[in-house]
Amino acid sequence: MTPRDALPAAPPLIVRASDARRLSALWRTSTDAGLRGRRRMLRGYLGATTTMTVIAAYQTGLTRTLPELPFRPFDAPRVDASPEAYQLLGMPDALLALLSNAATMALIGAGGRDRPRWLRRLTALKAGVDAAYSAKLTVDQVRKHRCLCSWCLLTTASTFSALPDALRQAR
Fold this sequence. Notes:
Elements: H1 17-29, H2 33-59, H3 76-80, H4 93-109, H5 117-145, H6 150-170
C-alpha cells in the first residue's frame, strides 16, 4: 500500500485556510480530467436530487399534486403514494433518496485532486449501489404498479449518468 492509499490517522474536520483556499480554486477553476469527471458525477446527482425533491414535497404533503406526463403508462402519484413508497424505515422513500444522494455527493466531493484509491473505490461502490437500487425501483414500478413515474425515471437516468465516471476513477 502506498502512502496515497493509506487512511489518514484522523481525517481533519477543518483544514488549514491555505489548504481550503487551494481546494476552492481547484474545484472552481481546474480543468483536470479527474475533477471534470467528478463534476459530471455531481451534475448527475444534483439532477437526481432535484427530481427527488419534487417527489418528497408530494410524499410529505407540502404539495397536494404531483405533475405527470399526460400519457399512458405514466402515473407518478400512483407510484409515489403507494404503500411501498413508505415501507422502508416507515418514512417517505424520497427523503431517504435525498439522504443517500447527499452521502454520495459528499464522497464525490471529498479530497482534492489526488484522492486515495480507497475513496475512489468507495465512491464507485456507492454509485453502483445507487444505480442498482434505482433500477430495482424502476422494475418495481412496472411489475407492482403497472405504470411509470416520469420523475423516478429522470432520477434513475441521472443516477446512471454518474456511474461511468465513478467506475473509471476507481480503476
